[in-house]
C-alpha cells in the first residue's frame, strides 16, 4: 500500500492490533483521517495530510516528527496503543 | 516477434516460454483440479477462471490492481537481506540493520518491516537476546512504520547433532517409532519455551509484533510447539501482535498423531491451519502454497489462488499469503520474474481476496 508514502503503515497497524480485515482496516483509517478509502493510497493527498497531522512523512522534512514522536501522534489519531510508545512513557516516569 | 495468438509466460522455475490462450485455460483448469484433489477446497467459478486467464495473458510485462485495491505488505527477514549471500537471495551489500531498516521504510515504502538476526532462528537469537532487544529499542525510536521481530522456530535445530533430542527421522528409520514421537514431543515443548522467552523479551523491548516465520518446517510437532508458544505469549503479554507464517502448504506428519486442541495436525492444509492459528491467538496468518517447477505459472497461480481463497474465506483474521521464491504461485527462482510475481499478486488480491501479502 505504499507505507509511509501513503497510509499503508496505518492500515497495517489496524490489521495487526485489532485483527481487522483489509476493507475494515481501510474504512477505519479513512474515517479517522477524514478521507475516502481510495485516498489512502494517493501519495499526493497523504503526503500533505501526514505533514498536517505530523504523523511522519517519507521525505526528509526538517522539524517534522519522526520515529517515536510520530508514533505518539499516530496513537492519538487512530485511537490505539502502540507498544513502543507505552514503553517510552513508562521509561519517562520518575 | 510474438504472434497475435501467442503470449509470453513463465514456467515454475522462471523460464520464459510462449503459450496460447487455450493452453493457459487448460493449465488453469488442471491447477484448480489439482488443488481440489489435494485439499478438498471448492473450485473457482467460471467468471474467476476467465478473470485469471485475462490476468495471465495480459500483454503488459507488469500488471497491477486498480487504485483503491492495494493491500498491506508484511515483510520477513529484515535488512539482513541486503548483506546476506545468494542462499537467502541476498545482495551481499553489507550495511547495518539500522540503515537498512530506514532504507526499507523511507525508500522502499514498506507497510511493515522486521528486525531479525542473520541466523534467523529462535535458538540462535536466545543467547544474544540482549543485543536484539537493545537494537529493537534503538530502531523503535527512529522508525515510524510498524517494526516487528521475526524468527523461525526451526525445530530441526533441536535434534541431534545440532540439539539435545534424538532425530525422529533417524529413529523411525530404525523402526523406533514411539521413541521418535517422544523425542519430537520433547523438542516441541522446548521450542515453545524458547519461542515464548524470545517473543516476551522483544515485546518488552517495544516491538510492534512477533513473526513466527516458516512455522512447521520440521513438521507437525513443530506446528504444535509454535501454536503453544503463541498461546503462551498471548497469555503472558495479551497486547502482543502475532504473525504466523507457514513453511509449506501441508503439515508434514513426521510424528503422525500429535494434536493441538484435540485435533491431529498432520496433513492439514491452509484452510484448516488458520483455524488453529486463530484459536492460539494469532493476529495475521500467512498461508503457503508450494510452486511446482515443472508446471507453468498459469497452473501454479491457479492452484495457489484456489487453495488460498478457501483459507481467506474460513479465516476470521487477516490472511497474508506468503508470496516469493517458490511460494504463492511465484516461480522458484533466485530472481523471480516480475511478470510472474505481479500476475500472482494481482490474482491473489482480486480472486483469493487476500488481506495482504
Would you write up a description of this structure?
The complex is a heterodimer of chains A (94) and B (357). Chain A has one domain (3-92). Chain A is mainly α. In chain A, 59% of the residues lie in helices and 0% in strands. Chain A contains five helices and no strands. With 357 residues, chain B is an alpha/beta fold. Chain B has a domain at 71-295 and 317-332: TIM Barrel, CATH 3.20.20. Chain B is 44% helix and 10% strand. Chain B has helices at 21-39, 46-57, 80-83, 97-106, 122-125, 129-142, 168-173, 177-204, 220-236, 270-280, 297-314, 338-350; strands at 7-10, 16-19, 113-115, 147-151, 210-215, 242-246, 259-260, 263-264, 284-286. In chain B, helix 9 (220-236) runs parallel beside helix 10 (270-280). Chain B is globular, with a radius of gyration of 21 Å. The chains are: A mainly alpha (94), B alpha/beta (357). At the A-B interface, helix 1, helix 4 and helix 5 of A face helix 6 of B.
Oligomer: heterodimer
Widest sheet: strand ordering of chain B: 3-4-5-6-9
| Relative helix content of chain B | 40-55%
CATH architecture of the domain at 71-295 and 317-332 in chain B: Alpha-Beta Barrel
Q: C-alpha Rg of chain B, in Å? A: 21 Å
Main beta sheet strand tally, sense and closure of chain A: none
Tally of DSSP helical segments of chain A: 5
Which terms would index this structure?
heterodimer; A: 94 residues; mainly alpha; 5 helices; 59% helix; 0% strand; B: 357 residues; alpha/beta; TIM Barrel; five-stranded parallel beta sheet; two-stranded antiparallel sheet; 9 strands; globular
In short:
The complex is a heterodimer of chains A (94) and B (357). Chain A has 5 helices and no strands. Chain A has 94 residues and is mainly alpha-helical.
